[in-house]
From TrEMBL:
Keyword Transferase: no
Taxonomic lineage from the root: Eukaryota, Fungi, Fungi incertae sedis, Mucoromycota, Mortierellomycotina
Presence of keyword Transferase: no
Signal peptide: none
Protein name stated in the entry: Glutamate--cysteine ligase
Domain of life (superkingdom): Eukaryota
Pathway assignment: Sulfur metabolism; glutathione biosynthesis; glutathione from L-cysteine and L-glutamate: step 1/2
Enzyme class at the top of the EC tree: ligase
Length: 328
């Protein structure tokens, strides 16, 4: 997740007045950064990993697993631990981690406290630090809560009580038929971004993942769980105007994409030439690693014919207007 600073995000109608200014100055800033760093030579490679967790609370009595929405409280405790460790060199080794909020109020992101370098001893440190982070996260969780490294929560958006505490769907930001705004991170950036994507698009996002057909799946598959009430003007689009496609699993909120988790690796190369080589090597390796680690085959309780989260993420932040999508 990028830099989270304090401020008041703009409504899209206000923000679009400054769109040309932002584009122009974005290019100027990039060129200035390029001029300042293009000849930079670092001492060594720096890199690190980011692990995103979903915090799940177990209800043993009723045999239910729910997404816990109290990660903000956990983050505050972890931040205190970091601050104390920064003042005490002896404790710093025991709390060698850094914690950050993510899009979902049930999501937790942990990184090493300091970047790794290009030495064999750094490779040997990775697994130990991952284990340390999990132990630190659990330290501030309730006995029935667990940080799970799961790509896509299989029952996100299903009817029933899947959140702890429970909230009904709908909300002014996402206007979703399936998930409440209460699962979005409390930082103003996230609900505003969610609402502004919908405002610019002129409708809710429409995510459609192909259903997996077995002998018991009707053809065409028309999802019977899509609500038919019209709380918001765009809700009627789902079935009446084709936002929900036949033979597909329909989702209508940014949370279905940005609420997914992953393991990320970030590199800072020695120089631009090394960065180019790393980038070129990742181009063929990335799809292979993605196929080997495919871990997102279920959405809203349905088995999909796709096992990767990428198309869900792309569709969840698609803010293109009808004209830009070629519909007008």
């Amino acid at each position: 997740m990028g830099l989270l600073s304090l401020g008041t995000p703009m409504h899209w109608d206000e923000a679009k007045k400054y769109a040309d200014h932002v584009r122009a100055h974005g290019i100027i800033q990039f060129l200035n950064l390029w001029e300042a760093t293009k000849n930079s030579q670092k001492d060594c490679l720096l890199w690190g990993d980011e692990i995103e967790y979903m915090v799940v609370s177990y209800d043993e009595e009723n045999k239910k697993a729910k997404l816990s929405l109290r990660v903000w409280e956990i983050l505050q405790e972890l931040a205190k631990e970091e601050e104390e460790a920064a003042k005490d060199p002896a404790k710093k080794l025991l709390v060698n981690s850094s914690w950050h909020p993510e899009y979902g109020r049930y999501m937790l992101e942990g990184t090493p406290g300091e970047p790794y370098m290009g030495l064999p001893r750094d490779l040997l440190e990775v697994e130990r630090n991952m284990k340390l982070r999990r132990e630190l996260a659990c330290k501030f969780m309730k006995p029935n809560e667990v940080p799970i490294t799961l790509t896509s929560y299989p029952r996100l958006g299903c009817a029933g009580e899947g959140l702890d505490p429970h909230h009904d769907p709908h909300g002014p930001a996402a206007r979703s038929l399936f998930v409440p705004d209460d699962i979005i991170n409390a930082h103003a950036r996230f609900p505003t971004l969610t609402a502004n994507i919908r405002r610019r698009r002129g409708a809710k996002v429409a995510i459609n993942m192909p259903i997996f057909h077995d002998k018991n799946t009707p053809k065409p598959f028309i999802d019977p769980t899509i609500p038919t009430y019209n709380d918001y003007p765009e809700d009627k689009n789902a079935i009446e105007q084709g936002a929900a496609l036949p033979d597909h699993i329909y989702m209508d909120a940014m949370a279905f994409g940005m609420g997914c988790c992953c393991l990320q690796i970030t590199f800072q190369a020695v120089n631009v030439e090394e960065a180019r080589k790393i980038y070129d090597q990742m181009a063929p390796l990335g799809p292979i690693m993605l196929a080997l680690t495919a871990a997102a085959p279920i959405y809203r309780g349905y088995l999909s014919d796709v096992d990767c989260r990428w198309n869900v993420i792309a569709q969840s932040v698609d803010d293109r207007t009808e004209e830009e999508r070629g519909l007008k």
